[in-house]
Amino acid sequence: MADLGKQTISIGSSANDGTGDPLRTAFDKVNDNFTEIYDAMTFGNTSGIGNNNILVTNNMFFSNTTTNTVANSTTIVISNSTSSFTITSGSNYYGNSTVNTTANSTTLSIANSTSQGTLATGSLLIGNSTVNATVNSSSITIGTANVTSNTLTLGSSTDAANGYTYLPNGFKMNWGWVSANSTDGNVTFTSAFTTNAYSVQATSNTATATYQAGVIATNNTIALIRTANATSTNVFWTAIGK
Q1: What's the whole-model pTM score?
Q2: What are residue 226's DSSP bridge partners?
Q3: Into which CATH architecture does domain 157-241 fall?
């Protein structure tokens, strides 16, 4: 049938004054109004809310001065002067002049002129011409990273006279001081190394040659530091290992 627009039933000036639409005319308008609504929709006995799904066969428009939305049987497009968003049966798209995003059941891709990111079921990839990063459940791989603050935290640490901190690539550094002489000066690392201490350096706080310290043995938990003098002196040490 032709699109007649909304038809309003005349109800007269007052009750039972005989000036309103006859009953047949009134219900003809009701039928015409319902027919236009039903012709604009598709009903199906498939899974959904209740026993029927309702689809708009052409388009539904929602708009104001800055935002326009179009919905039909396959897509929903939401847009304004700077961005747009489209939903299809397999993907969602968000974009503007510099940023484009695609989301579907397995990936989320975000891109603009300088960077792009992809989210898959097992990892998140973020990259541009200078920076590439991969994030998954067990690791983060970054090609180039700039840390603008003065602190980069890698694992745990102890800020004390005898302490330790983690270094890049899985290395660790212990440091401290011990009172050492020719027979005593055993050091127990604040945080034991998993494998071994690869390098241990010791320096006495006394300039006399016989007080200068040496490291005579190390393993992953201790270092043995001695001097050539029977009198004890403070010895400061650092150990790097893994």
Answers
A1: 0.50
A2: 214
A3: Sandwich (2.60)
